[in-house]
Structures are given as structure tokens and as C-alpha cells.
Design a protein that fits this description.
It is built from 18 helices and 15 strands. The protein is α/β, with parallel strands linked by helices and 503 residues long. A 6-stranded parallel sheet has the order 3-2-1-11-12-7, sandwiched between helices. A 4-stranded antiparallel sheet has the order 5-4-6-8, covered by helices on one side. Strand 1, helix 1 and strand 2 form a beta-alpha-beta unit. The structure holds 5'-O-[(L-methionyl)-sulphamoyl]adenosine.
Length: 503
């Protein structure tokens, strides 16, 4: 079974901040989980490189927009690598596969009668590359999204006849409650549609950094949002590799931040309908990372640099924090204190301590060899055996923090189990000691595999310490339906503490 997952393509006019990292960390966790579940996963991310904002920024720096994109895209790729993001492809909208595919889609919608010519007169926010109408302003002509001033635009333009899809998209969303998640966002979108959809201006002629409108040599360039959304098609083969496209489209899930939900929940599916293609199966809009109650963003200048956090705390601590601290879908406030508290309590104290206790006991009592269990362990394994089902339910709904809470329940229970059984009180040749130590080794196998999607590097370290030869990536989650998989006789290796306490 295939599973196609996408994140938005990132603007490359500036460096990534912590808010940007969130979408890809969440998507990566889901992608890794699905791979362990046996799916043929295709995880796409990339960069959004056209538009007026790029053209202006490049002009300010005295370089060509392509140079700006080439310079900044490297920063994104570096960051994804440092964060262990396992995307299967990376699409840049300046690549020819995208340009060809976007051109083809434009033509397809045009031929189907979905595009006509007109004149645009209205407000435009260049940093957000968004059109706004008077009725959407709270104050003067301030962009409702980034709070910067909008500009008046008047130009000949091609229009996507989005208004003609009003009823169709409304029915589509109403009939499929799973299409837009979480539910509160779905209601918001339904209300917006009911207020009425207007045709969308999809070409710009006052600047040139974009894909030329295919049907008219004087038609300017395609509006950057209209063009960028098409990456989800061109990234999986549209217009270039039919077999790949047939295999993966429609996307199974598109994860985005709530600031760009309108584009994804209204414009995008209506474009697909106009082109005779299926909409994605699900769009999930997560909340924002804020600092002291304000959205982390360039316009507010309150960006947190993810590299600094990775340098100081490691990529896994950061990944864990982002998905554990705030329910996915809600906003969260970032502070370094909160991050340090999580690291000390959950990672150093609970998990790190458990791993080092178990590996230490194996070293001491069995010379670092997993013993043969002598008998079974009074049902302690039952809480482990039922976990895959529970976790699966939460993962399907993207309730990441609950998955982690459940895994940490196991960590706590295992720490308590050790305290209760007090293996240090048993004689070295007591067969029950072997049973306890075998049980404890199995608990680590479970925990390592369960945390792998969230903290791949830590899980790998645990796996290596357990001495299991087969790579953790090749383990199926089905191996969690069986207790007693780890082979007696396996040599364990006590390693460095996974998460040193932060003072
Ligand atoms: N280029 C468009 C997307 C086009 S997709 C066809 C774009 N890019 S972005 O770089 O501005 O944003 C990328 C992602 O980062 C989005 O999912 C956005 O919601 C997310 N975030 C940006 N700031 C954020 C926070 N402060 N908090 C959480 N996510 C935020 O939009």
C-alpha cells in the first residue's frame, strides 16, 4: 500500500526558523511510522522559489532571484539533514519538471474552461503573496496574516473561475469530515466558503520572476501560489512520469500550518476539480509556535534559530519537545526553559535513566549477554503487547503527544517494575534474575522501536546498545505483536548516557 505525504514547499527568501521546522518534523514522524507499518511511503518537501517577494529580495541584494534561491535552498537542505528528515524527494519550483508540469496543469484547466481573462484591481500582500479584499482588513490596509501594509494592484490578469466550484467544494467538504482536520479548522473553512467564493487572479504582469502564462506570450507569469500548489503533483511525477503519478496521487495527507489553510482547503481542491483530478485525502493544519503569545515570524523578528537548539540539545530532544509539548493542531508557546524541563524530566530522568539502568544490570549480572528467560513474567508484558493498537489509533489521527504519553507510561511502568523486583537482591544464579533481565531487554526493544519515528537517532543508539544486528529501519511494527523476539545470548553494549541532564 502506498502512502503519499507532503509538507508545504518553503519560501527561500530567508533562513528557516523553528516554526518552519514543525511541519517537517511532524510529517517525518508520520512518514517513518508508516514505513515501519509496511507502507510504500513517498514523502515530499521542497522549496517555493518564484514570486514578487523573491524578485524584490534578490534585487535588494543585487543578485538574480535564481542565485538567491540557490543560496538559501542549501540552508534548508542542511537543516533537514541535521533534523533527520527522511523526505524521499525534494522539489524546487525552478526545476524543469515542475515548470513543465505546472504549465501543463494551467493549460488543462484553461482548456476545460476554468480560466478566463479579466482585470485585477485590489490589494496584495507581497510578503505573504496573497490577495485580500477590503472586507478582510481589520485595520487600514494591513495584511490580516502578517500585519504588514498591502499594496494596491491593478493589472490585466487571467482568472481561475473558482466561484463556479463553490457548491461542489462545499458539498465535498461536508460529505467527508476527515478531509480537513482538525474539526475546528474544517468549520472555519466551511464558513468561509458559505460567505461566497470569488474568482482568483492567477497571473501577474508587473514583474517577471515566475513561470510564464502558457496560453499567452504577453500574459505575464503565473501567480506564485497557484503555481506552488502544483508542486504536490509535479513532485510525484505529473507531466513527466505517469506511472509514478498514477501510483501516488492523490496524496494521503498534506500537512501544513494553519496560516496557509485557505490555499490548501479551498484553492487547491478546486484547482484539482477543474483539472479533473482527485483532491488529496486529508489536509491537516497544525498550530503555530509562538513566543510570548505572538506567532514566531520574520515580520515580528522573534524567530528562534533551530541550529542553535540542535547544537545545544541535539536534534532528537528538539523533535521530541515539538511533538510532546503541544497537542498537534493547537498553538504553543516556545521557551528554552520549557525545552530544558522536558529534556531533564522525560529524556534524561525517565528514558535515559531506564536505558542505563538496564544496560548496567546486564553488564553487572550477565557480563552483557541477554539471558535465557526461565519462565514467564506475571503478565508484565501485557501492557506492551496492547500498545501497538493504541498507538496506531493516535497516529492515524496525528495525536502525537498522546502517543508519546503512552510510550512514557511504559517507561514509568518499567522503572517501577525494576524498583519492585529489585534484581540486586537476588542471587546471581537465581533463575528468576534471568527472567527479569530478559523481560527488561524486551521492554527496551519495544520502546526503541516505538520512539524510532519520533527520535530516530536515539532509537538507533538504543538498538545498538541492545546489540540487535538487523537495522531498526527494517523492523516491522508487527514485531511488536510478539513478546520474546530478542535472542538470548545477544551481546549488549553499555553506551554513553542518552541525554545528560542540563544543569
Ligand atoms: N511557500 C508557502 C507554502 C507553499 S505550499 C504550496 C509557505 N512557505 S513558508 O516558508 O512561509 O511556510 C512553510 C511552513 O512553515 C508552513 O506550513 C507554515 O505554516 C509553517 N510555519 C511558519 N511559521 C510558523 C510558526 N511560527 N509556527 C508553526 N508553523 C509555522 O507558506
Amino acid at each position: 500500500m502506498k502512502f503519499y505525504i507532503t509538507t508545504p514547499i518553503y519560501y527561500v527568501n530567508d533562513l528557516p526558523h523553528l516554526g518552519h521546522v514543525y511541519t517537517n518534523v511532524a510529517a517525518d514522524t508520520l512518514a517513518r511510522y508508516k514505513r515501519l507499518s509496511g507502507f510504500d511511503v513517498f514523502f515530499l518537501t521542497g522549496t517555493d522559489e518564484h514570486g514578487q517577494k523573491m524578485e524584490r529580495q534578490a534585487a535588494k541584494e543585487g543578485i538574480r532571484p535564481q542565485e538567491l534561491a540557490d543560496r538559501v535552498v542549501v540552508k534548508f537542505k542542511e537543516l533537514w539533514k541535521r533534523l533527520d528528515i527522511s523526505n524521499d524527494d525534494f522539489i524546487r519550483t525552478t526545476e524543469s519538471r515542475h515548470i513543465q508540469g505546472a504549465t501543463k496543469l494551467f493549460e488543462k484547466i484553461y482548456r476545460g474552461g476554468g480560466i478566463n481573462k479579466g482585470r485585477y484591481q485590489g490589494w496584495y500582500c507581497t510578503p505573504c503573496e496573497s490577495y485580500w479584499s477590503e472586507r478582510e482588513f481589520d485595520k487600514d490596509q494591513e495584511c490580516p496574516s502578517c500585519r504588514r501594509p498591502c499594496e494596491w494592484v491593478e493589472e490585466e490578469s487571467y482568472f481561475f473561475r473558482m466561484s463556479t466550484y463553490q457548491e461542489k467544494i462545499l458539498r465535498y467538504i461536508e460529505e467527508d469530515p476527515a478531509f480537513i482536520q482538525p474539526g475546528s479548522r474544517r468549520t472555519e473553512i466551511l464558513n468561509l466558503i458559505k460567505e461566497g467564493l470569488r474568482d482568483l487572479s492567477i497571473s501577474r504582469s508587473s514583474f517577471s520572476w515566475g513561470i510564464p502564462v502558457p496560453i499567452d506570450p504577453k500574459g505575464g507569469v503565473i501567480y506564485v501560489w497557484f503555481e506552488a500548489l502544483i508542486n504536490y503533483l509535479t513532485g510525484c511525477g505529473f507531466g513527466a512520469d505517469d506511472e509514478r503519478f498514477e501510483r501516488y496521487w492523490p496524496a494521503d495527507i498534506q500537512i501544513i500550518g494553519k496560516d496557509i489553510l485557505r490555499f490548501h482547503a479551498i484553492i487547491w481542491p478546486t484547482m484539482l476539480m477543474a483539472a479533473g483530478l482527485s483532491p488529496p485525502k486529508k489536509i491537516f493544519a497544525h498550530g503555530w509556535w509562538m513566543v510570548k503569545g505572538r506567532k514566531m515570524s520574520k515580520s515580528l523578528g522573534n524567530m528562534v534559530n533551530p541550529h542553535q537548539l540542535i547544537d545545544e540539545f541535539g536534534q532528537d530532544a528538539l523533535r521530541y519537545f515539538l511533538l510532546r509539548e503541544v497537542p498537534f493542531g493547537l498553538d504553543g508557546d516556545f521557551s528554552k526553559e520549557a525545552l530544558i524541563n522536558r529534556i531533564n524530566a522525560d529524556l534524561a530522568n525517565d528514558l535515559g535513566n531506564l536505558v542505563s539502568r538496564i544496560l548496567g544490570m546486564l553488564q553487572l549480572y550477565t557480563d552483557s549477554k541477554i539471558p535465557h528467560p526461565r519462565g514467564s513474567e506475571d503478565g508484565f508484558q501485557d501492557i506492551f503487547l496492547k500498545i501497538p493498537m493504541e498507538v496506531n489509533g493516535f497516529m492515524e489521527e496525528l495525536v502525537f503527544n498522546q502517543v508519546l504519553i503512552r510510550i512514557w507510561d511504559l517507561v514509568h511502568s518499567t522503572n517501577e517494575y525494576i524498583d519492585q523486583k529489585a534484581p540486586w537482591r537476588l542471587e546471581r544464579d537465581d533463575p528468576y534474575l534471568s527472567t527479569i533481565l530478559y523481560t527488561l531487554s524486551e521492554t527496551l526493544r519495544y520502546i526503541a522501536l516505538l520512539i524510532f519515528p519520533f527520535m530516530p537517532n536515539t532509537a538507533r543508539k538504543m538498538w545498538d546498545q541492545l546489540g540487535i544486528e538487523e537495522s531498526i529501519e527494517n523492523q516491522g511494527l508487527t514485531s511488536l505483536t510478539r513478546w520474546g523476539v530478542i535472542k538470548p545470548g545477544t551481546r549488549t553494549v553499555r553506551g554513553e548516557p542518552l541525554f545528560p541532564r542540563i544543569g
